[in-house]
Design goal:
Layout lengths: L3 H7 L4 H7 L5 H27 L2 H16 L13 H18 L13 H4 L6 H30 L3 H10 L5 H11 L8 H24 L7 H10 L16
């Protein structure tokens, strides 16, 4: 029998399709792919630059360099068979940060996944790497929260609200959560503690499914173990307990 995880992975379209389209020949397809990729990653890149540079003007300057680098097809050597798009992003951004710190000018070279450590400029220390991973992790979580909120808006089912309440009040009992939810949801009917528990279970399941989908889209034809490894490396696996289990031999 096909497992839920296999069914989920089989329907995933990866970000690599957009990466390749962004460096293709058809102008309309290129623009659409570039827009989709920048919309996905730009906020995380800018937050990272603000954190590591500590100056809004500096972050804006380096971010503009990153955007120009991408639009000028500096990722044309990206190969989905050799690495995750996140690795290309990290090489690009950390190199730009290091160049800025050293006061270098001129166009940076195209990004390649080969000899990864050789490409990372000497100014990129362990803290830069860790901070980049943390910002990417936060970006995935924010996208998952946004999607869950949009689902609540269109369906009327308060899964986003109940999960936010649990995150804000981790020690609250079900009766207290039911009362808080009643005040948060306009014109709602009385909500029992048992109903809150069921809503919370469904909300957690939905949040995990969204998070797994978001991460999976950045991998190339991921296996179940690939997905587990990526979630673990990003520090997101703890959000998926009970829904994703180690692959059985």
């Amino acid at each position: 029998m096909t497992s839920r995880n296999d069914q989920h992975l089989s329907r995933i379209s990866t970000i690599w399709t957009q990466v390749l389209d962004a460096h293709g020949e058809d102008e309309a397809s290129v623009r659409a792919a570039q827009t989709a990729i920048m919309d996905r990653y730009a906020p995380a890149v800018h937050r990272y630059l603000l954190k590591v540079l500590g100056d809004a003007d500096a972050a804006d300057e380096v971010f503009q360099q990153f955007a120009l680098q991408f639009l000028r097809q500096a990722f044309r050597n990206a190969d989905p068979a050799r690495g995750r798009f996140r690795d290309y992003m990290k090489i690009s951004v950390l190199n730009l940060v290091s160049r800025y710190r050293r006061g270098e000018t001129g166009a940076p070279r195209p990004v390649s996944i080969e000899h990864l450590e050789d490409q990372l400029a000497v100014g990129a220390d362990d803290g830069d790497h860790e901070e980049f991973t943390a910002v990417v992790r936060d970006a995935f979580l924010m996208r998952a929260w946004d999607r869950l909120q949009e689902m609540e808006r269109t369906s009327g089912n308060p899964l986003y609200t109940v999960l936010k309440l649990r995150a804000q009040e981790p020690n609250a009992k079900s009766p207290a959560l039911a009362e808080m939810l009643r005040h948060r949801v306009p014109d709602s009917k009385p909500i029992s503690p048992d109903h809150v528990r069921k809503l919370l279970q469904r909300a957690r399941q939905q949040f995990t499914d969204i998070l797994v989908d978001e991460v999976s889209q950045t991998l190339r034809q991921p296996t179940h173990q690939d997905l587990l490894d990526e979630l673990d490396e990003l520090g997101l696996l703890r959000y998926c307990r009970g829904r994703l289990r180690p692959a059985t031999k």
